[in-house]
Amino acid sequence: MTTSDRRLFPASFSVAPMVDWTDRHCRYFHRLLSKRAILYTEMLAAPAVLRGDRARLLDFNTEEHPVVVQLGGSDPGEMAETAAICAEWGYDAININVGCPSDRVQKGRFGAVLMKEPQTVAACAEAMGRAVGAGGRDVPITVKCRIGVDEVDSEEYLAHFIETVAASGVKTFVIHARKALLRGLSPRENRTVPPLDHERVHRMKARFPQLEIIINGGLASIGDCKAQLEHVDGVMVGRAAYQTPWLLAQVDEGLFGQPSPVKSRVEAVERFIPYVERRLAEGVPLNAMTKHILGLFHGVPGARAFRRVLSEEAPKNPTDIGILHKALDHVRTVKADSVAAE
Ligand SMILES: Cc1cc2nc3c(=O)[nH]c(=O)nc-3n(C[C@H](O)[C@H](O)[C@H](O)COP(=O)(O)O)c2cc1C
Fold this sequence. Notes:
Distance between the termini: 30 Å
Number of domains: 2
Number of helices: 16
Strand content: 5-15%
Bound molecules: flavin mononucleotide
Strand order of the largest sheet: 1-2-3-4-5-6-7-8
Radius of gyration: 20 Å
Helix content: 40-55%
Structural class: alpha/beta
CATH topology of the largest domain: TIM Barrel
């Protein structure tokens, strides 16, 4: 990549969409750790948004911006209607899921199976862009895909997929650098068994310099992200960001040269507490929020006790903020608790 390319697309860092994990409480917590991270919702099926409890699915905290909603679907009409609603709701971008391999999703004919139908993805993206524009909103439509699926896994095919979808106006592609196997592997195995091929994603950037290419899959540290940003416009981190969220506190400084918004893990929890109290008052159970911070102290003394108190006692005491204070007492004296200590 040349320097001028990089100026066209300022580097980006995002936390991957993850069902059951990146809900609004999780995203609020992640935002306390990084101002620069782009946050994603869990995947929402378009029919659920159209016919379900819309506020429950779509509401987010204003602090979460920039926040991207991820949609699953393959019917251009439904996807367009859903996109218009999401744009109106205030999301900063709308991402189409072309990577999820689960059975349930395949039956609905969306997710990774759509790698085999680039024209369908293009038709959805085009209709979504038109619907969002008609509402007077400038909200980009983006795509998250795999490098291949089943037997459709050649480099040429991936380029054909990207080219076809880009013709509908999509300028940003997040590419999970492993193929998906739709039969025989569970969704979990589909995140570990097929080998990573980061280089193939780099070659897509070289081939389509005008597109924003964001790489995903297997990145576990700021160093990993920096190395990838030599080749592509952005990095997306999933499991490592969720399981060891302190990684996020190093993003602003490590990747963007800006001060971290929190000085220590303890400070991060203390700043999360007022939010937790507000939500408890609304009836949200404690564990629905504290489950997202279990890995915060990973690798420092007291981490086990912190995790144990929260995972054992929060589910049994759904209204008691005291459990969070009790967990925090186990890690308050941690010496190595600072951004610089990493
Ligand atoms: C619990 C879990 C749920 C996930 N749900 C989604 C999802 O809703 N949409 C999606 O595009 N990918 C989903 N993924 C895949 C991640 O977004 C990401 O592509 C994958 O984990 C690889 O990145 P990583 O190696 O950094 O974790 C999920 C992953 C996990 C672990």
